[in-house]
Automatic annotation (TrEMBL), chain A:
<keyword id="KW-1133">Transmembrane helix</keyword>
<dbReference type="InterPro" id="IPR010288">
    <property type="entry name" value="EcsB_ABC"/>
</dbReference>
<dbReference type="GO" id="GO:0016020">
    <property type="term" value="C:membrane"/>
</dbReference>
<keyword id="KW-0472">Membrane</keyword>
<feature type="transmembrane region" description="Helical">
    <location>
        <begin position="23"/>
        <end position="48"/>
    </location>
</feature>
<dbReference type="Pfam" id="PF05975">
    <property type="entry name" value="EcsB"/>
</dbReference>
<feature type="transmembrane region" description="Helical">
    <location>
        <begin position="280"/>
        <end position="313"/>
    </location>
</feature>
<feature type="transmembrane region" description="Helical">
    <location>
        <begin position="351"/>
        <end position="379"/>
    </location>
</feature>
<keyword id="KW-0812">Transmembrane</keyword>
TrEMBL record, chain B:
<dbReference type="InterPro" id="IPR027417">
    <property type="entry name" value="P-loop_NTPase"/>
</dbReference>
<keyword id="KW-0067">ATP-binding</keyword>
<dbReference type="InterPro" id="IPR003593">
    <property type="entry name" value="AAA+_ATPase"/>
</dbReference>
<protein>
    <submittedName>
        <fullName>ABC-2 type transport system ATP-binding protein</fullName>
    </submittedName>
</protein>
<dbReference type="InterPro" id="IPR051782">
    <property type="entry name" value="ABC_Transporter_VariousFunc"/>
</dbReference>
<keyword id="KW-0813">Transport</keyword>
<feature type="domain" description="ABC transporter">
    <location>
        <begin position="3"/>
        <end position="233"/>
    </location>
</feature>
<keyword id="KW-0547">Nucleotide-binding</keyword>
<dbReference type="GO" id="GO:0005524">
    <property type="term" value="F:ATP binding"/>
</dbReference>
Length: 400, 246
C-alpha cells in the first residue's frame, strides 16, 4: 500500500499549489514582477560594470546562495498515518524516496534564480573555473543539507539549532572556495562530518509524530506564505498574548460599549495578537521602503509604494474572513452588518496609518515633490474599499 | 411559552435529518433532549439557533420567528455548544466584554455578574489569560460563564456535563436550578440520564429524527407502562436499546 500512496498525495499537493498560484500570480502581480525584475536586472548589470573585484561581492554572492541552500522536507504524511501506516513502517522506503525527490524539486526554482544572480555578481573578478566550482559546491550543499535536514527530523537534535549551523557551514564553504579552490576539501569534510553526526543520532525506528508534526509545520508555513496574497481557509491561526500591547488596544467606554463597537474591539485584538500578521506587515513596509529608496526614480517609487499598500490591504482582509465565518457572529443577537461596518472603520484607520508611512518614505526620498505623497492614503482608501466589498460579497454568497 | 417548535422538518442538505418534530418549553422549565448518537438532537438545536433553515415547520422563541426579527429572536437565547468555541486572540475578560456588548449589558454589570460566576467555577484568578490555553473542562466553564451572564429567557446547552469535573457539574446544576427558579428555561441535550432524571422537569426523546415521546418522567412511565422504572430503562425501551439504530 505505501508504494502507491505517495503519488496521489503528490498530485493533490501539486493541485493545491496550482490553485493558489492562480491567485498569487494574478495579472497585477505579474506586471509588478516584470517591472521589478527588469529594473533589478538593469540596475544590477549597470552597477556591476562600475564595480571592481572585492571580498564584499564574494560575501554577497555566498550569503545569497547560503540562504537558498536550505531545502525543506515535505513528507506529505497525515496525522492518521501515525496509526494506520505503523504496520508498514519497514516498507516505507519507496514512499520516502519519492517524498525526497519531490521535496528537492519544490525548492530548486529558488536555487536556480539565486544562482543566476550569484553568477552575475561573480563575473566581477572570478574566472569560469571558480564560478563553476562555486555552483557545483552550491548544488552539493543543497543535496547534502536536504539529507541532513531530513534525517535530523528523526533525532533529538533541535531544529532551531540545526538551521543556523547549516547556514554557517554553507556560507563558510562558499566564501572559502571563492578565495582558493583548495578549500573545497574543507567543505567536503564539513558536510561529511555533519552527515555522520546526524546519522549517529538517528532513532532506530521512525518517529512518526516528529515527521507528521514537521509536515504540519511545513504545510502551515506554505499557507502562511500564500496568505500574504490571498485568503487561505486552511490556515491554522496562531496568536501571541503580547501583554505589553494591552494599554494600546482601544476599548469602547460608556455609551459606546455596545454591539456596534464590539467587532472593532475584536479586530484590533485580532491584528495585534496575530502570531504573524503584524510582523509580515512590518517586513512588507521595510521591504517596499528599501526598494523605493534603492530605485530612486520618482515614478518607480510611486508604483512600488502603491503596490506595497495593495499587498498590505490584501493581508488585512484575512482578519475579516477569519471572524465572519465563526460560530458566535451567527448566534449572538447582533446584526451581521456590524461586522462589516466595524471592519471598515478598523481597516480604514489601519490602512491610513500604513499609507502615511509610505507617504513619509516617499517625501523623504523626494522632498521637493512631497505633495505627491498624498496619492498613498488615497490609494490605500480606495483599494481597501474595493477589497472590503469583495470580501463581503464572498461572505454573503457563502452564508447563503 | 418560551420555545415553540411546530412540525419541524430539516437537516443539513435537501435530505431531512429530523422529521415533523414538535416541542414546547414553558417559562421556568428544564427540558432534557435525549437521543442516541445521530438521533437528531444537534440538528434540532442548530435549527433553534437559526444555523440551519427548516425545510418545513416553524420555530418561535418568545413568540417571534427568526425571520421576523433575527436580533430580537437571538437576544432571548444563549447557547453553550458541546465543544467549547472560543476566540483564540481574546482573554477571558475580553470574552466577557464581547458577550456583554452582544447582549446589550453594561460593562460594570457584566463584570459584576461574571465575578460571581468566575468564583463559582474557580476561574477568577485567570481573567487576563487566553482561555484557549485552558483545559477542555475550563474552556467549557468559560462558555458557561459567558452564557449565564447574559441571563436570557432560554438556555440551549449541548451536553452540559461533558468535560466538567464533579465540582463543576455540581455548580452547573445549582446554577441551572437557580435560573429555573428565576423564571428562565433550559433545553439541554444529554446522555447523562441519571443526572437529567433528577433535574429535568420534562424530557423530549428523539429517535431516528422523530420525536418518539415527550413528557415528565411520571408521564413517560405511565405511557409505556413502566411504573417505578428509571429514565435509563424508559429510554432504552422507547429507543429499542439502540438495536435498530446500530
Amino acid at each position: 500500500m505505501p508504494d502507491t500512496l505517495f503519488k496521489p498525495r503528490m498530485n493533490a499537493d501539486i493541485k493545491r499549489r496550482s490553485y493558489y498560484s492562480k491567485f498569487i500570480f494574478n495579472s497585477h502581480f505579474l506586471i509588478f514582477l516584470t517591472i521589478a525584475g527588469g529594473v533589478f536586472l538593469y540596475s544590477l548589470l549597470g552597477l556591476l560594470q562600475t564595480l571592481e573585484s572585492s571580498i564584499w561581492l564574494d560575501m554577497i554572492a555566498a550569503l545569497l546562495m547560503s540562504m537558498l541552500l536550505l531545502p525543506g522536507y515535505r513528507s506529505l504524511l497525515k496525522p492518521a498515518d501515525g496509526i494506520f501506516l505503523l504496520p508498514y513502517e519497514t516498507r516505507m522506503d519507496a514512499y520516502f524516496k519519492d517524498a525526497g525527490r519531490y521535496s528537492l524539486m519544490l525548492g530548486i526554482s529558488k536555487v536556480i534564480t539565486g544562482a543566476v544572480v550569484a553568477l552575475l555578481i561573480l563575473t566581477v573578478g572570478h574566472d569560469t573555473f571558480v564560478i563553476s566550482l562555486f555552483l557545483l559546491l552550491s548544488l552539493l550543499h543543497y543535496i547534502a543539507n536536504f539529507h541532513i535536514n531530513k534525517r535530523a527530523i528523526n533525532t533529538q537534535i533541535s531544529r532551531i539549532g540545526m538551521t543556523p549551523v547549516l547556514f554557517i557551514v554553507n556560507i563558510l564553504s562558499l566564501m572559502l572556495v571563492l578565495q582558493h579552490p583548495a578549500w573545497l576539501v574543507l567543505s567536503l569534510i564539513l558536510l561529511f562530518a555533519m552527515g555522520k553526526y546526524v546519522k549517529r543520532r538517528e532513532h532506530r525506528y521512525l518517529d512518526w509524530n516528529a515527521y507528521i508534526e514537521h509536515e504540519e509545520v511545513q504545510l502551515n508555513r506554505y499557507y502562511r506564505n500564500v496568505s500574504m496574497f490571498t485568503n487561505v481557509s486552511h490556515l491554522e491561526k496562531q496568536f501571541k498574548r503580547r501583554k505589553y500591547l494591552d494599554p494600546l488596544l482601544w476599548k469602547p467606554k460608556g455609551a459606546s460599549f455596545n454591539k456596534e463597537k464590539m467587532y472593532e474591539f475584536l479586530f484590533y485584538r485580532t491584528f495585534a495578537r496575530d502570531h504573524d500578521l503584524p510582523m509580515i506587515i512590518l517586513r512588507l513596509i521595510i521591504l517596499f521602503g528599501i526598494i523605493m529608496v534603492w530605485m530612486g526614480n520618482i515614478y518607480l517609487s510611486v508604483v512600488i509604494g502603491l503596490f506595497g499598500i495593495y499587498v498590505i490591504v490584501l493581508q488585512m482582509s484575512q482578519i475579516y474572513s477569519a471572524q465572519a465565518y465563526l460560530l458566535w457572529p451567527k448566534v449572538w443577537p447582533v446584526d451581521r452588518t456590524f461586522i462589516q461596518r466595524s471592519y471598515v472603520t478598523y481597516s480604514h484607520k489601519s490602512v491610513f496609518v500604513i499609507s502615511l508611512i509610505f507617504g513619509i518614505i516617499f517625501a523623504a526620498i523626494h522632498p521637493a515633490l512631497f505633495y505627491i505623497a498624498v496619492v498613498f492614503p488615497v490609494w490605500g482608501y480606495l483599494t481597501n474599499r474595493i477589497f472590503s466589498r469583495t470580501v463581503y460579497k464572498k461572505e454573503q454568497e457563502l452564508s447563503d | 411559552m418560551v420555545l415553540q417548535i411546530e412540525h419541524l422538518t430539516g437537516g443539513y442538505s435537501k435530505t431531512p435529518v429530523i422529521h415533523d418534530v414538535s416541542l414546547n418549553i414553558n417559562k421556568g422549565e428544564i427540558v432534557g433532549l435525549i437521543g442516541l448518537n445521530g438521533a437528531g438532537k444537534s440538528t434540532t438545536i442548530k435549527h433553534i439557533l437559526g444555523l440551519l433553515r427548516p425545510h418545513s415547520g416553524e420555530i418561535r422563541v418568545d413568540g417571534i420567528t427568526i425571520g421576523e426579527n433575527a436580533e430580537d429572536y437571538r437576544r432571548h437565547l444563549a447557547y453553550i455548544p458541546e465543544t467549547p468555541v472560543l476566540y483564540e486572540e481574546l482573554t477571558l475578560k475580553e470574552h466577557i466584554q464581547m458577550t456583554a456588548m452582544a447582549y446589550g449589558i453594561g460593562e460594570e454589570t457584566a463584570l459584576e455578574r461574571a465575578g460571581d460566576l468566575l468564583k463559582i467555577f474557580r476561574l477568577d484568578t485567570k481573567i487576563n489569560m487566553f482561555p484557549t490555553h485552558f483545559s477542555k473542562g475550563m474552556k467549557q466553564k468559560v462558555m458557561l460563564v459567558c452564557a449565564f451572564l447574559a441571563r436570557p429567557d432560554l438556555y440551549i446547552i449541548d451536553e452540559p456535563f461533558l468535560g466538567l469535573d464533579p465540582l463543576g457539574i455540581d455548580s452547573l446544576i445549582d446554577l441551572m436550578v437557580e435560573e429555573r427558579n428565576g423564571g428562565r428555561s433550559i433545553l439541554m441535550s444529554t446522555h447523562i440520564l441519571a443526572t437529567a432524571e433528577k433535574y429535568c422537569d420534562r424530557f423530549a426523546i428523539i429517535d431516528n429524527g422523530k420525536m418518539v415521546a415527550e413528557g415528565s418522567l411520571d408521564a413517560l412511565r405511565d405511557e409505556f407502562n413502566m411504573h417505578g422504572a428509571s429514565l435509563d430503562e424508559v429510554y432504552l425501551k422507547i429507543t429499542g436499546g439502540g438495536i435498530d439504530n446500530a
